[in-house]
């Protein structure tokens, strides 16, 4: 399923994806080949330090990465070492991210940073003919079984709209009456 929202430069830039246990996320989140997709393991992000380390490792942040919120925001908004036509960050097992009760504010800050990076990319000039920005989206993926582990995800559900099919109605769909 190709998701139109993930190819757009419009907000929201951070999304919640609730999926069935064991469902393959790469099948749900098919994005164009010219996008860079990075997968962040939520299990490695239980603490702020773990989250910052995981992002640094997965994105190969420069040596000057300061391991703080400001540095994360700065690096996500400037991925010069990772050129692409669009970016997708998938945080698996998002229910494991910043799980201590006193880290609720940190979780909100984390989602805000993902959104702010998306906004920054939406405003950048691109190399294509339109000159419009580039898509940058983050998906917090959580199984339906673990969705209730957090009261507020600070991200709207990912719209699962499909691109119109050129092959006609889906199999089993009723044909319009004539």
From TrEMBL:
Q: Where is this region: Disordered?
A: 154-178
Q: Domain Barstar (barnase inhibitor) spans what residues?
A: 38-137
Q: Which domain of life is it from?
A: Bacteria
Q: Which residues form the signal peptide?
A: none
- Gene3D superfamilies in UniProt: Barstar-like (3.30.370.10)
The record, for Pfam families, names: Barstar (PF01337)
Q: Which SUPFAM superfamilies match?
A: Barstar-related
So what family is this one in? Belongs to the barstar family.
Protein known as = Putative Ribonuclease inhibitor Barstar (Modular protein)
What organism, scientifically named, is this protein from?
Nitrospira defluvii
